[in-house]
Each structure stands twice: as C-alpha cells, then as structure tokens.
Write a structure and sequence with these properties.
This protein is α/β, with parallel strands linked by helices. The chain is built from eleven helices and eight strands. It has an eight-stranded mixed beta sheet with strand order 3-2-1-4-5-6-7-8, sandwiched between helices. The two termini are about 35 Å apart. Bound molecules: NADP nicotinamide-adenine-dinucleotide phosphate. NADP nicotinamide-adenine-dinucleotide phosphate (NAP) binds near residues 20, 40, 43, 75 and 83.
C-alpha cells in the first residue's frame, strides 16, 4: 500500500501550500516523476518555491495544462474552493478528486466539480515531515480502485485510516486535525512547569518533547488500553499519583473533552457555511 508504481499518470494539485507540498514531496519520494505533477498556485513566490523544491510544473490558474490528469488533489483554503472549482471542472471532471480541505462536504465537491469520484480526507501538520495521521472518507458508491489510489497518495505523508460516515470527519478534525496544537499546548505547560521548578527552558523542552515521543511510541507498540498504561506508572501514594490526583481535582479531563467538542462544533459550522 505504501509504494506508488511509477507511471505516466498526471496528478494535478489545486493550491500549492503546506499540505500540497507535503503530499507532492511524498509522491516524489515514492517514485512519481515531478514532470507528471501539475500545480495551480496563484502566488508567485510559492510557485517559485515549488519549482525549486520539487521541480514540478506550476501555473497561476487552472486551464488546459490540467487536461488528462487522472487525479486532482484539492489543497486550497475552503473559502476559495467555489471560485477555484469552475475552471478545474472544465478540464478535469473525469478525474478522481481527493480533497484535504477542511469542512467542504463531498456533496459540495460533487456539485462544484461535476463528479461523484470523490475522497475527502483530514490530514494534520506532522504530514510535513512524513509523520501525518490522516482519516479518509469516500461515498459508498466509490470503487475500491479509487479508494486504494487515494490511500496510497495519503500514505506518502504518514499513517491513514478510513471512517465510514462523513460526519465522523468533524470528530477527526477535532481530534487529529487540531490535535497537534493540543500537544504543543500541553508541551508548553510542561516546559513552563519545568522552568518554575528550576530547569532551563531548553532542558524542560527536551524532557517534555522526549517524554511525549517515548510515551506515544510505547502506546503505539502496546495492545493494552491507555488507562492500563497510565496505571502502570502510577503507584498509589507516589509522585505520578499526586500529579494525576491534582489533575482530576481540577477537572482537566472534562475540560479537555469540552474543548474538543467545541472544535467539532466549529467544524460542523464551517461545513454548513461552505456547503451553502
Ligand atoms: N495545514 C494543516 O495542518 C491542515 C490539516 C488539515 C486540513 N488542512 C486543509 O488543507 C487545505 C490547505 O491547507 P494548507 O495548510 O496547505 O494551506 P495553505 O498553505 O494556505 O495553502 C493553500 C494554497 O492554495 C492557494 N490558493 C488560493 N486560492 C487559490 C485558487 N483559486 N486556486 C489555486 N490555488 C489557490 C494559496 O495561495 P495564496 O497563498 O496565494 O492564497 C495557498 O498557496 C485547507 O483546506 C486546510 O483546511 C490543512
């Protein structure tokens, strides 16, 4: 599933920002020839950066150079999708459309691009270093070949999983899409606490980041429930016990759950806004 067969297939990107660049880098590492990748990007310095970094073909506006693309990756901000769609539809309505745009629902993409061949996904920023965690969704009618193709492309940026219902992408947005910011927030708090307790900022940062990294790897490698992993390092009356009891007393977990529900609600609102 992780490797992409070198082929003459043309792949178009609408928007050449961070996410597009992460996926383009992944595709090229997997053997896709840069000259088979065509990017629409209105901002001149971003176009120059894409050429310098990846050697792909870039244009300021969608047009004939996208004709013949069998895959279109949508990586513009949701606000500009509607205006960007019309010129793409004219030349690429036969392609598989893979969207990384937050909030734009598959029905809106179908209507704007004149196709039912759609996969939506929600990546996150670690995709920029090949460590992304992406959830994918496709309407039931989409065939396995298109599903496999979309997953192959996304897997060049990290790990992937499928969700069965489109509204689950709003939960994914709240969990893994926005999740890196929660991790940074938690890391900041750990660093600040470390400094208050006498460590340097650099020491506290290294300890906090290394702990997240190691604990995440441990959780990924273990079949045990997360609560069991936590209990294993929490002996009654010990230091970790003191910290977790304090967190429980302050309602940290409930606050965290409420925060993620707020993110999910916002994702629903954005979907309603852009779907109009
Ligand atoms: N970054 C993330 O972690 C993340 C995670 C999940 C989902 N997403 C979603 O992925 C999408 C792209 O995000 P991003 O972080 O890659 O954003 P970004 O870096 O701002 O990239 C968007 C690019 O699209 C270009 N663009 C604007 N209007 C266009 C048009 N009409 N036609 C073609 N290109 C156009 C922009 O150019 P200008 O600079 O000239 O405007 C910009 O380079 C968004 O929908 C976002 O919600 C991002």
């Amino acid at each position: 599933m992780t490797s992409i067969e070198p082929s003459r297939e043309l792949i178009g990107f609408i928007g050449g920002g961070n996410m597009a660049s992460a996926i383009i880098g992944g595709l090229i590492r997997q053997g896709v020839a840069p000259e088979h990748i065509r990017v629409v990007e209105p901002f001149e310095s971003t176009r120059a950066a894409l050429v310098a970094l990846h050697g792909v073909q870039v244009e300021a506006a969608a047009g004939e150079f996208l004709r013949g693309t069998s895959l279109i990756v949508w990586a513009v901000k949701p606000q500009v999708f509607m205006e960007a769609a019309a010129p793409v539809r004219a030349v690429a309505s036969n392609a598989l459309h893979l969207s990384v745009m937050a909030g734009i629902r598959s029905g809106s993409i179908a209507a704007a691009c004149g196709t039912q061949r759609i996969v939506r996904c929600m990546p996150n920023t670690p995709a920029l270093i090949g460590r992304g965690m992406t959830a994918l969704f496709a309407p039931a009618e989409l065939d396995d070949k298109d599903r496999t193709r979309a997953e192959q492309v996304i897997r060049t940026t990290g790990d992937a999983l499928w969700v069965e219902r489109e509204e689950q992408l709003d939960a994914v947005t709240a969990l893994s899409g926005s999740g890196p910011a929660y991790v940074f927030y938690f890391l900041e708090a750990m660093q600040e606490a470390g400094q208050k307790m006498g460590l340097s900022a650099a020491q506290a940062r290294q300890l906090a980041v290394g702990t997240f990294d190691g604990a995440s790897a441990l959780a990924a490698a273990s079949p045990d429930p997360l609560g069991v992993l936590r209990e294993r390092v929490t002996s009654k009356g010990g230091t970790t016990y003191a910290a977790l009891t304090s967190m429980e007393g302050s309602g940290v977990k409930e606050a965290f759950i409420r925060a993620m529900q707020a993110a999910q609600q916002r994702a629903v609102e954005l979907g309603d806004e852009f779907g109009r």
